[in-house]
Amino acid sequence: MQKHVLSCLGAVFALTACSSSHERQIASGEFEYLQEAKTISLKVPEGKETPKFSRDYELPKLGERAPTSLVGPKLTVVSPQLVLPLVSGSHITEGSQEAVIWFDQIDDSQALDTTIWNSLLSFLEEQGIGVVEFDKDKQLLLSDWMIIEDNGDSSWYSWTKTERSVGQRFEFNLEVKPHGRTAALKVRLKDYLETINDEVVGEIDHSERRRNEVEVLNKVISHYAKQIRIADARRLRQIQQGLSMELGFNAGGEPAFVVDASYDITWPRILLVLRKLGFNVKDLDQSNGLLFVSYSGVDSSWWSDLWGGTEELTLEKTDYRFILKEQGQKTSITLQNNEGETLPSKTLTEIFQPMSEVMATDNLDI
User: Fold this and answer.
1) At what angle do helices 112-126 and 206-240 cross, to 10 degrees?
2) Domains parsed from the chain with CATH numbers
3) pLDDT tens by residue, 87-143
């Protein structure tokens, strides 16, 4: 029994030992149908009744543009490569034959096209791939050769070794809508060169070309998504860390708090600080930096645990407005009453100490 199993395994290994990457993409078995002659219609003698023929298994006629050469081993049977919209705000066009993905503006810290190009350039640099041409005005980038070396066994059970090298150059084109908040990144295979042992291939069919284009586009998308995750994690750490704050003035010369952090970090941080100090946010407008709040007093138990006392802000328990504005690398916070009048510097000085201490506290709950 054992010898029989070993002989079967040996036969399997012998059959699959020469399996190559191309062979795994085509139909298994032989292609005897290529040798079949074209059949002709049944000729019915004169005077005889013509039998009824079923058309259930009739093959459809080929179109004029059908690639008639793609038969037998030239026809790949693998599933088509799909573009994966992994980035927030990205989407694809169903049925598109191009390797293209659409991005919508999510982060307003910089222009969408700049964000996409920076991510693409970062991907190429990380992979050690050069740039032959980059014209941001034309929204076009041409990569240097991407080389794939395959000198390993074709599979773990194979005793054959195939030396294969593939070189590809891709053209990336960015189509930006006039409003600048939507853009499509397209990839086109510009040049292709493959060597298998001593054989050189310089052309591939349309389906293989698209598969390669989508494959590299998906790698670019994955890198883009990874960068966003890293940036989000870094931003979350910055929000949780304490920030220094000082008394100063806003861009209009009015008294204000000035936080040593960018606007996108200060905005979520001030929400945590206000909640800890007893403010309830009634309404907000992040795009304009407006916070409409009411002051109801601090949670005495939390204040006692942190400072050992039950001190509250010397503010009347009523409605207020906080106005945040980007000020260089920092952010100004202006306080107003419910009528939109800026609070005097004396009031800001009185509440500065507790507010600055909470602003500087690490690991505030989110």
Assistant:
1) 110
2) 76-238 (3.30.530.50), 242-359 (3.30.310.170)
3) 999 999 888 889 999 999 988 778 999 999 999 999 999 999 999 999 999 999 999
